Amino acid sequence: MKICIIGQGYIGLPTAALFTRNHCNVVGVDVNDKIVNNLNKGIIHIEEPGISEIIKNAVKNGVYSASLTPQEADAFIITVPTPYIIENYSCDLSYVISACESIIPYLKEGNTVIIESTIAPMSTNETIKPIFEKAGFTIGKNLFLAHCPERVLPGKILEELVHNDRIIGGITPECSKKASEVYGQFVEGDLMLTEAKTAELSKCMENTFRDVNIALANELAKICTEIGVNALDVIKLANKHPRVNLHSPGPGVGGHCLAIDPYFIYAKAPEKAKIIKLARDTNNSMPKFVCENVKKIISNGKIAILGVSYKGNTGDDRESPAYEIIQELSKDFKIAIHDPHIKNPNFVSLDEATKNADLILVLCDHNEFKELDYDLISKNMSKPIIFDTKNIIKEVPNEIKLYNYGNLYSLN
Ligand code: SAJ
Q1: Same domain, 192 and 293
Q2: Fewer CB near the terminus (10 Å): N or C of the chain?
Q3: What residue's CA is closest to ligand 1, atom 28?
Q4: Distance between CA 337 and CA 316 in Å, rounded?
């Protein structure tokens, strides 16, 4: 089977890798010529375990190539970003629409087109289907269209792409069947056949579920800070109940999924989606909460920021709450940023960041930060104070003052 994948990012590239590992030929299309050139040399641009080796091999064996333009294939998979439109929170389908338009000259009767990008409910039927109908195809008869959302965890993408169950939402049952034959090439989880609109909303709700739960944990952190209770202990103890799973509070919710997908539902039914919007607002308020507490700890001086990725052990900083925090704190403090997963000429080494710092502010749970010798580091600082917003530092010597969401109330 030959597959043409439009968008070679965090989802498109690992998906391409798995097809090549399962005896398919893949052309990976991207608009960025630097990415395309590098991919054709077997050099990948995302930090994700396992992908590099597979793509290198696939290029060597001639089963993978990258291109700026699509090619004829049996199946086309669209994995391009879908941001939200700031004015009304609705799903910005412009990249998906242009990706669909770009494949039209290469489509043949009997092809399957799959949208993997997360999209608002009704998008496949109302916006995407007409693009192909206008080009002369009859969906379900001579072209098969489906929405099949990905559901993988960055850092474990390869494993989850293979083993997770997969929602296959066809425009017609025949479309679902054709799309499931594509994923049958490498997916070992269940292929769950449904309608496109059900697939769209299921995907958005998965991430909304998590966003709402994180908002609850963040709200708890704020309540505890106000009334003088250790939020982290509350979470630990409440989670001993067999049916309770309180999530972890943090500096806010980032990434390309949780911070965006709930808005797609909200935009469709704003009068009804009250909890969803409140959860978004609560999570968006966390950077401000962090800054307020930093200002209670110190009023001037230098802050060493540890980590700007949106989550631990990834180099992905899309929608990271760290940037809002840095922007706000830069008004009153000297800021030095260290993140071992992100290449940025403005970021500095751990030593340089912590030298003469008055506070270490941990914003990301990279493994490297869990294993640091904070005793040694603090000797380099002006004041040995740490504010750990991710609760990754368990013990420090008495000389170091450690704040986390368990004891912020002591600042009141
Ligand atoms: N976070 C918290 N507290 C928690 C858990 C997470 O503050 O208890 C924060 C993280 O620090 C991060 C953000 O939430 O900033 C999102 O991280 P995440 O690990 O929850 O999720 P993502 O965005 O990396 O991946 C999610 C996953 N969805 C669900 O778990 C329902 C993943 O399975 C999806 O495939 C992915 O979105 C996606 O592509 O949609």
Answers
A1: no
A2: C
A3: 207
A4: 15
